[in-house]
User: Fold this.
Amino acid sequence: MAVPFFSIDFRWKEWQAFLAAVLTGHLREGNALAELEREVAKRFALHYVTFLPSARMGFDVLLEARFSKGDEIIIPAMGFPLYVSLMLQRGIKPVFVDVEPTHYTIDPERIAKAVTRRTRAILVTHLFGHPARMDEIEELSKRLSLPVIEDCAQSFDSFFRDRETGTFGMAGIFSCSVMKVPTTLGGGLFVTKDKGLHERIRTLLDEPGRDSGLLKTTRYFAFNVISILNSYPLIYSLLSHPALGLIKWRNPSLLRKILYSGLGLGGNYSRWERPRLANYQAAVGLRQFQRTSEMTASRIRYADILNGILKGTMGLKLPEKADDCRWNYQYYVIHAGKQADHLYHQMFARGIHVMKEDVWDCPRYPFAREYYRPCPVASEYTPGLIRIQNNSMMSEKRIRKIAGIIRQIIEEKDIRG
Assistant:
Protein backbone atom coordinates (compact mmCIF):
# COMPACT_ATOMS: atom_id res chain seq x y z
CA MET A 1 0.00 0.00 0.00
CA ALA A 2 1.06 3.58 -0.64
CA VAL A 3 2.28 5.78 2.21
CA PRO A 4 0.69 9.27 2.49
CA PHE A 5 2.90 12.33 2.90
CA PHE A 6 1.30 12.99 6.29
CA SER A 7 -0.93 11.06 8.66
CA ILE A 8 -3.04 12.28 11.56
CA ASP A 9 -2.60 9.88 14.48
CA PHE A 10 -6.35 9.44 14.76
CA ARG A 11 -7.14 6.60 17.16
CA TRP A 12 -10.28 5.35 18.85
CA LYS A 13 -10.25 8.15 21.47
CA GLU A 14 -10.19 10.79 18.75
CA TRP A 15 -12.96 9.04 16.83
CA GLN A 16 -15.08 8.92 20.00
CA ALA A 17 -14.65 12.65 20.59
CA PHE A 18 -15.23 13.48 16.93
CA LEU A 19 -18.37 11.37 16.56
CA ALA A 20 -19.81 12.47 19.91
CA ALA A 21 -19.62 16.12 18.86
CA VAL A 22 -21.19 15.38 15.49
CA LEU A 23 -23.94 13.00 16.62
CA THR A 24 -25.06 15.12 19.58
CA GLY A 25 -25.42 18.21 17.41
CA HIS A 26 -22.48 20.01 19.05
CA LEU A 27 -20.41 20.36 15.90
CA ARG A 28 -19.84 24.11 16.32
CA GLU A 29 -20.84 25.08 19.85
CA GLY A 30 -20.02 23.32 23.11
CA ASN A 31 -17.74 23.21 26.15
CA ALA A 32 -14.78 21.42 24.60
CA LEU A 33 -12.71 24.56 23.87
CA ALA A 34 -12.87 25.80 27.47
CA GLU A 35 -11.90 22.33 28.68
CA LEU A 36 -9.01 22.17 26.21
CA GLU A 37 -7.64 25.56 27.27
CA ARG A 38 -7.82 24.58 30.95
CA GLU A 39 -5.94 21.36 30.18
CA VAL A 40 -3.17 23.09 28.21
CA ALA A 41 -2.90 25.93 30.77
CA LYS A 42 -1.71 23.35 33.32
CA ARG A 43 1.26 22.66 31.09
CA PHE A 44 2.26 26.32 30.71
CA ALA A 45 2.28 27.54 34.30
CA LEU A 46 2.44 31.33 34.72
CA HIS A 47 1.37 31.82 31.09
CA TYR A 48 -1.90 32.73 29.40
CA VAL A 49 -3.03 30.32 26.68
CA THR A 50 -5.49 30.94 23.87
CA PHE A 51 -6.55 28.75 20.95
CA LEU A 52 -7.02 30.61 17.67
CA PRO A 53 -8.30 29.81 14.18
CA SER A 54 -4.65 29.69 13.07
CA ALA A 55 -1.11 30.34 14.28
CA ARG A 56 -0.75 33.01 11.60
CA MET A 57 -3.59 34.97 13.21
CA GLY A 58 -1.64 34.96 16.48
CA PHE A 59 1.46 36.32 14.78
CA ASP A 60 -0.55 38.99 12.97
CA VAL A 61 -2.21 40.16 16.20
CA LEU A 62 1.20 40.28 17.88
CA LEU A 63 2.57 42.47 15.08
CA GLU A 64 -0.43 44.77 15.29
CA ALA A 65 -0.24 45.08 19.07
CA ARG A 66 3.47 45.53 19.68
CA PHE A 67 5.11 46.88 16.49
CA SER A 68 4.83 49.90 14.19
CA LYS A 69 5.49 50.69 10.57
CA GLY A 70 9.23 51.09 10.00
CA ASP A 71 10.25 48.73 12.80
CA GLU A 72 12.69 45.91 12.08
CA ILE A 73 12.50 42.32 13.29
CA ILE A 74 15.44 39.95 13.02
CA ILE A 75 14.21 36.75 11.41
CA PRO A 76 15.90 33.46 10.44
CA ALA A 77 16.57 32.90 6.76
CA MET A 78 14.88 29.51 7.06
CA GLY A 79 11.38 29.84 8.47
CA PHE A 80 7.72 30.29 7.63
CA PRO A 81 7.58 32.55 4.53
CA LEU A 82 4.06 33.75 5.32
CA TYR A 83 5.37 35.43 8.47
CA VAL A 84 7.65 37.53 6.28
CA SER A 85 4.66 38.45 4.13
CA LEU A 86 2.63 39.43 7.21
CA MET A 87 5.44 41.70 8.39
CA LEU A 88 5.66 43.41 5.02
CA GLN A 89 1.89 43.97 4.90
CA ARG A 90 2.27 45.96 8.12
CA GLY A 91 5.32 47.90 6.95
CA ILE A 92 7.70 46.00 9.24
CA LYS A 93 11.11 45.22 7.78
CA PRO A 94 12.45 41.65 8.00
CA VAL A 95 16.19 41.48 8.64
CA PHE A 96 17.33 38.02 7.58
CA VAL A 97 19.99 36.20 9.56
CA ASP A 98 21.50 32.96 8.34
CA VAL A 99 20.98 29.65 10.12
CA GLU A 100 23.49 27.21 11.56
CA PRO A 101 24.06 24.14 9.35
CA THR A 102 23.21 21.39 11.83
CA HIS A 103 19.62 22.13 12.86
CA TYR A 104 18.79 25.00 10.46
CA THR A 105 17.82 27.34 13.30
CA ILE A 106 18.95 30.96 13.56
CA ASP A 107 22.69 31.33 14.18
CA PRO A 108 23.11 33.29 17.45
CA GLU A 109 26.60 34.42 16.45
CA ARG A 110 25.17 36.40 13.52
CA ILE A 111 22.30 38.11 15.36
CA ALA A 112 24.19 40.99 16.99
CA LYS A 113 25.67 42.08 13.65
CA ALA A 114 22.17 42.47 12.21
CA VAL A 115 20.90 44.80 14.95
CA THR A 116 20.23 48.45 14.05
CA ARG A 117 18.62 51.35 15.89
CA ARG A 118 15.26 50.28 14.42
CA THR A 119 15.45 46.65 15.57
CA ARG A 120 12.56 45.82 17.88
CA ALA A 121 12.60 42.01 18.30
CA ILE A 122 14.22 38.69 17.44
CA LEU A 123 12.04 36.02 15.84
CA VAL A 124 13.21 32.46 16.47
CA THR A 125 11.88 29.49 14.48
CA HIS A 126 12.34 26.03 15.97
CA LEU A 127 12.47 24.53 12.49
CA PHE A 128 11.31 20.92 12.10
CA GLY A 129 10.72 20.97 15.86
CA HIS A 130 14.37 21.20 16.96
CA PRO A 131 14.91 23.95 19.56
CA ALA A 132 17.16 26.84 18.63
CA ARG A 133 20.13 27.77 20.84
CA MET A 134 17.97 29.52 23.40
CA ASP A 135 20.71 30.03 26.00
CA GLU A 136 22.73 32.22 23.63
CA ILE A 137 19.62 33.89 22.23
CA GLU A 138 18.31 34.71 25.72
CA GLU A 139 21.67 36.23 26.64
CA LEU A 140 21.59 38.37 23.49
CA SER A 141 17.99 39.35 24.18
CA LYS A 142 18.89 40.67 27.63
CA ARG A 143 22.09 42.37 26.52
CA LEU A 144 20.43 44.10 23.55
CA SER A 145 17.08 44.71 25.31
CA LEU A 146 15.22 42.99 22.49
CA PRO A 147 12.23 40.70 23.13
CA VAL A 148 12.14 37.24 21.59
CA ILE A 149 9.19 35.85 19.62
CA GLU A 150 9.10 32.08 19.27
CA ASP A 151 7.71 30.48 16.14
CA CYS A 152 6.83 27.11 17.66
CA ALA A 153 4.65 25.90 14.79
CA GLN A 154 6.52 22.59 14.70
CA SER A 155 7.94 22.34 18.23
CA PHE A 156 5.20 21.44 20.70
CA ASP A 157 6.75 19.06 23.26
CA SER A 158 10.32 20.06 22.37
CA PHE A 159 12.55 21.23 25.21
CA PHE A 160 15.80 23.16 25.51
CA ARG A 161 17.53 22.18 28.75
CA ASP A 162 14.30 20.97 30.37
CA ARG A 163 12.42 24.14 29.42
CA GLU A 164 9.68 23.91 26.82
CA THR A 165 9.80 25.91 23.62
CA GLY A 166 7.29 28.72 23.68
CA THR A 167 8.19 29.82 27.21
CA PHE A 168 11.37 31.79 26.47
CA GLY A 169 9.99 34.85 24.71
CA MET A 170 7.23 37.44 24.83
CA ALA A 171 5.06 34.90 23.00
CA GLY A 172 5.16 31.33 21.76
CA ILE A 173 3.02 30.61 18.69
CA PHE A 174 2.17 26.97 17.98
CA SER A 175 0.38 25.49 14.99
CA CYS A 176 -2.32 22.85 15.50
CA SER A 177 -3.00 22.26 11.81
CA VAL A 178 -3.82 18.82 10.43
CA MET A 179 -0.13 18.21 9.70
CA LYS A 180 1.01 19.01 13.23
CA VAL A 181 1.14 16.95 16.41
CA PRO A 182 -0.89 17.47 18.48
CA THR A 183 -3.62 18.71 16.16
CA THR A 184 -6.98 20.41 16.60
CA LEU A 185 -7.66 19.76 12.90
CA GLY A 186 -6.68 23.33 12.13
CA GLY A 187 -5.96 26.12 14.55
CA GLY A 188 -3.18 27.65 16.59
CA LEU A 189 -2.10 28.07 20.19
CA PHE A 190 -0.85 31.40 21.56
CA VAL A 191 1.19 31.31 24.80
CA THR A 192 2.31 34.50 26.56
CA LYS A 193 3.00 36.09 29.94
CA ASP A 194 1.84 39.43 28.55
CA LYS A 195 -1.63 39.98 30.03
CA GLY A 196 -2.35 42.92 27.73
CA LEU A 197 -1.52 40.88 24.65
CA HIS A 198 -3.63 37.99 25.90
CA GLU A 199 -6.61 40.27 26.53
CA ARG A 200 -6.25 41.83 23.08
CA ILE A 201 -6.53 38.42 21.45
CA ARG A 202 -9.50 37.50 23.63
CA THR A 203 -11.26 40.74 22.71
CA LEU A 204 -10.67 40.06 19.03
CA LEU A 205 -12.12 36.56 19.27
CA ASP A 206 -15.17 37.85 21.15
CA GLU A 207 -15.97 40.60 18.65
CA PRO A 208 -19.61 40.45 17.51
CA GLY A 209 -20.12 39.43 13.91
CA ARG A 210 -17.07 37.18 13.90
CA ASP A 211 -19.09 33.98 13.81
CA SER A 212 -17.62 31.75 11.11
CA GLY A 213 -20.96 30.92 9.57
CA LEU A 214 -22.37 27.50 8.85
CA LEU A 215 -21.07 27.36 5.27
CA LYS A 216 -17.43 28.04 6.18
CA THR A 217 -17.58 25.65 9.15
CA THR A 218 -19.15 22.93 6.99
CA ARG A 219 -16.56 23.39 4.26
CA TYR A 220 -13.72 23.17 6.77
CA PHE A 221 -15.38 20.16 8.41
CA ALA A 222 -15.43 18.37 5.04
CA PHE A 223 -11.74 19.17 4.53
CA ASN A 224 -10.94 17.70 7.94
CA VAL A 225 -12.90 14.51 7.26
CA ILE A 226 -10.95 14.04 4.03
CA SER A 227 -7.66 14.68 5.87
CA ILE A 228 -8.51 12.11 8.54
CA LEU A 229 -9.51 9.44 6.04
CA ASN A 230 -6.49 10.22 3.89
CA SER A 231 -4.26 9.28 6.84
CA TYR A 232 -5.14 5.62 6.36
CA PRO A 233 -2.88 3.90 3.77
CA LEU A 234 -5.71 1.89 2.18
CA ILE A 235 -7.81 4.96 1.39
CA TYR A 236 -4.75 6.97 0.33
CA SER A 237 -3.63 4.11 -1.94
CA LEU A 238 -7.01 3.74 -3.64
CA LEU A 239 -7.86 7.41 -4.11
CA SER A 240 -5.33 10.11 -3.30
CA HIS A 241 -2.03 8.63 -4.49
CA PRO A 242 -3.31 7.82 -8.01
CA ALA A 243 -4.89 11.28 -8.26
CA LEU A 244 -1.72 13.02 -7.07
CA GLY A 245 0.32 10.86 -9.43
CA LEU A 246 -1.80 11.98 -12.38
CA ILE A 247 -1.41 15.64 -11.40
CA LYS A 248 2.34 15.11 -10.91
CA TRP A 249 2.59 13.72 -14.44
CA ARG A 250 0.33 16.26 -16.15
CA ASN A 251 1.05 19.43 -14.18
CA PRO A 252 3.91 19.27 -11.61
CA SER A 253 3.54 22.95 -10.72
CA LEU A 254 -0.12 22.40 -9.79
CA LEU A 255 0.85 19.50 -7.52
CA ARG A 256 3.39 21.70 -5.80
CA LYS A 257 0.75 24.41 -5.36
CA ILE A 258 -1.64 21.89 -3.78
CA LEU A 259 0.93 20.34 -1.46
CA TYR A 260 2.25 23.66 -0.18
CA SER A 261 -1.05 25.54 -0.02
CA GLY A 262 -0.66 25.65 3.77
CA LEU A 263 2.15 28.16 3.36
CA GLY A 264 -0.52 30.74 2.56
CA LEU A 265 1.35 32.40 -0.28
CA GLY A 266 -1.59 32.70 -2.65
CA GLY A 267 -2.28 36.37 -1.90
CA ASN A 268 -2.76 38.89 0.88
CA TYR A 269 -3.51 37.37 4.24
CA SER A 270 -6.99 37.70 5.72
CA ARG A 271 -7.15 37.40 9.50
CA TRP A 272 -10.45 35.51 9.41
CA GLU A 273 -9.63 33.24 6.47
CA ARG A 274 -9.91 30.27 8.82
CA PRO A 275 -13.09 29.64 10.85
CA ARG A 276 -13.19 29.83 14.63
CA LEU A 277 -12.19 26.64 16.38
CA ALA A 278 -15.34 24.52 16.40
CA ASN A 279 -16.43 22.30 19.27
CA TYR A 280 -15.56 19.08 17.42
CA GLN A 281 -12.03 20.38 16.75
CA ALA A 282 -11.46 21.21 20.41
CA ALA A 283 -12.85 17.82 21.46
CA VAL A 284 -10.39 16.04 19.18
CA GLY A 285 -7.62 18.40 20.28
CA LEU A 286 -8.19 17.54 23.94
CA ARG A 287 -7.55 13.86 23.21
CA GLN A 288 -4.52 14.75 21.10
CA PHE A 289 -2.94 16.94 23.77
CA GLN A 290 -3.51 14.21 26.35
CA ARG A 291 -1.61 11.79 24.10
CA THR A 292 1.28 14.14 23.29
CA SER A 293 3.98 12.27 25.22
CA GLU A 294 2.92 8.94 23.72
CA MET A 295 3.04 10.29 20.16
CA THR A 296 6.36 12.06 20.70
CA ALA A 297 7.92 8.88 22.11
CA SER A 298 6.90 6.99 18.96
CA ARG A 299 8.40 9.63 16.65
CA ILE A 300 11.66 9.63 18.62
CA ARG A 301 11.83 5.83 18.39
CA TYR A 302 11.11 5.93 14.66
CA ALA A 303 13.78 8.58 14.15
CA ASP A 304 16.29 6.31 15.89
CA ILE A 305 15.31 3.47 13.55
CA LEU A 306 15.65 5.69 10.47
CA ASN A 307 19.04 6.95 11.68
CA GLY A 308 20.24 3.40 12.29
CA ILE A 309 19.29 2.14 8.83
CA LEU A 310 20.30 5.25 6.86
CA LYS A 311 23.59 5.88 8.66
CA GLY A 312 26.48 5.74 6.21
CA THR A 313 24.31 6.08 3.10
CA MET A 314 26.39 7.99 0.59
CA GLY A 315 25.42 11.61 0.11
CA LEU A 316 22.81 11.77 2.88
CA LYS A 317 23.09 14.17 5.81
CA LEU A 318 20.91 12.83 8.62
CA PRO A 319 19.27 15.00 11.29
CA GLU A 320 21.27 15.45 14.49
CA LYS A 321 19.89 16.17 17.95
CA ALA A 322 21.73 18.51 20.32
CA ASP A 323 22.62 16.79 23.61
CA ASP A 324 20.91 19.43 25.75
CA CYS A 325 17.61 19.28 23.85
CA ARG A 326 14.60 17.05 23.75
CA TRP A 327 13.50 17.09 20.12
CA ASN A 328 9.94 16.09 19.30
CA TYR A 329 10.95 15.02 15.76
CA GLN A 330 7.87 16.73 14.38
CA TYR A 331 9.54 16.31 11.00
CA TYR A 332 12.37 13.93 10.13
CA VAL A 333 14.27 15.78 7.41
CA ILE A 334 17.37 14.57 5.60
CA HIS A 335 19.64 16.51 3.26
CA ALA A 336 20.06 14.59 0.02
CA GLY A 337 21.90 17.29 -1.91
CA LYS A 338 21.79 16.85 -5.68
CA GLN A 339 20.12 13.47 -5.21
CA ALA A 340 16.98 15.09 -3.75
CA ASP A 341 14.94 15.22 -6.98
CA HIS A 342 15.89 11.68 -7.94
CA LEU A 343 15.02 10.37 -4.48
CA TYR A 344 11.69 12.21 -4.43
CA HIS A 345 10.57 10.87 -7.83
CA GLN A 346 11.74 7.33 -7.15
CA MET A 347 10.03 7.20 -3.76
CA PHE A 348 6.77 8.49 -5.24
CA ALA A 349 6.95 5.87 -8.00
CA ARG A 350 7.20 3.21 -5.30
CA GLY A 351 4.16 4.52 -3.47
CA ILE A 352 5.93 6.50 -0.76
CA HIS A 353 5.10 10.18 -0.89
CA VAL A 354 8.02 11.94 0.77
CA MET A 355 8.00 15.74 0.70
CA LYS A 356 10.58 18.11 -0.74
CA GLU A 357 11.28 20.69 1.95
CA ASP A 358 12.75 23.32 -0.36
CA VAL A 359 10.27 26.00 0.68
CA TRP A 360 11.92 27.48 3.78
CA ASP A 361 14.54 29.80 2.23
CA CYS A 362 12.63 33.02 2.91
CA PRO A 363 14.97 35.62 1.30
CA ARG A 364 14.50 34.03 -2.13
CA TYR A 365 10.75 34.72 -2.33
CA PRO A 366 9.82 37.54 -4.74
CA PHE A 367 7.94 39.51 -2.07
CA ALA A 368 11.12 39.59 0.07
CA ARG A 369 13.49 40.55 -2.74
CA GLU A 370 13.88 44.14 -1.55
CA TYR A 371 15.24 42.87 1.77
CA TYR A 372 17.45 40.13 0.37
CA ARG A 373 20.81 39.58 2.01
CA PRO A 374 23.13 36.62 1.38
CA CYS A 375 22.47 33.68 3.70
CA PRO A 376 24.78 30.99 2.28
CA VAL A 377 23.85 28.19 4.69
CA ALA A 378 20.14 28.52 3.95
CA SER A 379 20.82 28.77 0.21
CA GLU A 380 23.06 25.70 0.25
CA TYR A 381 20.90 23.35 2.28
CA THR A 382 17.27 24.23 1.47
CA PRO A 383 17.15 22.81 -2.11
CA GLY A 384 18.27 19.35 -0.98
CA LEU A 385 15.94 18.76 1.96
CA ILE A 386 13.56 15.77 1.96
CA ARG A 387 11.04 14.98 4.71
CA ILE A 388 10.59 11.31 5.51
CA GLN A 389 7.44 10.00 7.19
CA ASN A 390 7.90 9.20 10.89
CA ASN A 391 4.34 9.69 12.14
CA SER A 392 3.24 7.79 15.23
CA MET A 393 0.24 6.46 13.27
CA MET A 394 2.65 4.27 11.31
CA SER A 395 4.05 0.88 12.25
CA GLU A 396 7.69 0.11 12.95
CA LYS A 397 7.63 -2.36 10.06
CA ARG A 398 6.59 0.39 7.65
CA ILE A 399 9.27 2.76 8.97
CA ARG A 400 11.94 0.11 8.39
CA LYS A 401 10.61 -0.52 4.89
CA ILE A 402 10.76 3.19 4.02
CA ALA A 403 14.34 3.48 5.27
CA GLY A 404 15.38 0.38 3.35
CA ILE A 405 13.90 1.70 0.10
CA ILE A 406 15.68 5.05 0.52
CA ARG A 407 19.00 3.30 1.01
CA GLN A 408 18.33 1.02 -1.96
CA ILE A 409 17.52 3.96 -4.27
CA ILE A 410 20.67 5.86 -3.30
CA GLU A 411 22.91 2.80 -3.63
CA GLU A 412 21.43 1.85 -7.01
CA LYS A 413 22.06 5.37 -8.30
CA ASP A 414 25.62 5.25 -6.96
CA ILE A 415 26.30 1.95 -8.76
CA ARG A 416 24.93 3.27 -12.06
CA GLY A 417 26.79 6.54 -11.57
Q: What stands out?
A: The chain has two domains: 12-206, 234-263+283-415. The mean pLDDT is 93.
